Amino acid sequence: MQSPDESSTSNTALSRRAFIGAGSAALATAAISTSALAQQAQDTDGAEHDHSSSNPGPVNSTLFGINPNTNTPPPTDHGDIGPIWYSFDLARKRVEEGGWTHQVTQRELPPSADIAGVNMRLTAGSFRELHWHTANEWAIMEYGSARVTVMNPDGTMFIDDVGEGDLWFFPAGYPHSIQGLGPDGCQFLLVFDEGGFSEDGTFLISEFMAHVPPEILKKNMRLSSSDIAKLPKNELYIFPSELPKSLSADRSVIGGGKVAAQQQYTFRMGSMEPAFKGAGGEVRIVDSTNFPVNSSIASALVRIKPGGIRELHWHPNASEWQFWLKGHGRMTIVMPEGRARTMDFAANDVGFVPAVAGHYIENTGETDLVFLEMFKAPRFVDVSLNNWIGRMPPEMASAHLHLDAAALKKIPTEKQPIIAG
Ligand code: MN
Ligand code: MN
Description:
It is built from 13 helices and 25 strands. By secondary structure, it is of the alpha+beta class. The chain folds into 3 domains: 4-52, no CATH class; 92-267, Jelly Rolls; 276-419, Sandwich (Jelly Rolls), CATH 2.60.120.10. Strands 2, 3, 4, 5, 6, 7, 8, 9, 10, 11, 12 and 13 form a 12-stranded antiparallel β-sheet that branches. Strands 1-21-18-23-16-15-14 form a 7-stranded antiparallel β-sheet, with no helix packed on it. Strands 17, 19, 20, 22, 24 and 25 form a 6-stranded antiparallel β-sheet that branches. Strand 6 (137-151) and strand 7 (157-163) form a beta hairpin. Mean pLDDT is 91; it is low at 1-14 and 20-47. Residues 313, 315, 320, 353, 359, 373 line the site of one manganese (II) ion (MN).
């Protein structure tokens, strides 16, 4: 526990104007003023909520209620770092018979040049039409189960069933399919390693065949004119169908082991052992080191208990694209020139952290916070601020932080991805 004169509690006593504008002498004066301490006592969330931030004008009380830090950030925020938040609950759904899709791409979140996300629902038996695309595809099942297939260029075929918490990875250009299974189909998040990707811009088997002259289809596929007349004239995209045979029956009917892919394109992330487990939560990491076909998209599935934080850290190799699966939290990102932004996030939101920018995530809710950290990178890598300070000669740390040896000893020296509240 902190004593009242330590750490952030003295900063929260400062007025916003004093913090942003003043030098250290003024800060010290402000920190001990009785009015500031009285304000602090009323101020349980660390933000300044005195009359200066009152808002007599109109308010969208629903949005305001779930975004207190976004609307009235802590006084440590400063300047502009660009957009870092969007929500799938603001993204237009394309609803078809058999399911729906919607996306959060660079068009919705312009700084996200590396990654775009798509959320998709397929009812039982329904297909996402056979297709391929320019980006690599990573996916996690959020609900239900699906059958996925992908063919290697050498003609070997991968077929598997996936359930909640399972991943798949399909390389760019490799043709693949997704079909919802019983009893209620599935929902999943797709992550592409191109920020400008669009789920409406995929290469479809129906369109390839509909836009080739019929005489070419006759030569290429030995089809008759009446066969060709039956082919779909327009894209199918998402459409209802019958449930497939069993997994083993589907595998054997195409040729069994002789045509089976040697690579494993699915991964059981939800049931894997955590890479980190502590009192504050746990982290599961999947990248090219434990899922070799996944050459380009690293991921961490993070669970934080109420009050806990994902420690102060940054990633040396990529920007971070987040999908929030459960719970509530807030994140602050700190950039050069003292720029900093804090925002609130909830389930179904997308967060973005510019490359190598320092950040933390705090669980501000009453339940576990679960979110994904996604990177366009072959490896998951993070740098812990605590770890770095702990590895310095104490004189070096003291010269920079103005802390004495006793204070420095309080800082954990080892990386703890999650610190309990
Ligand atoms: Mn795809
Ligand atoms: Mn991070």
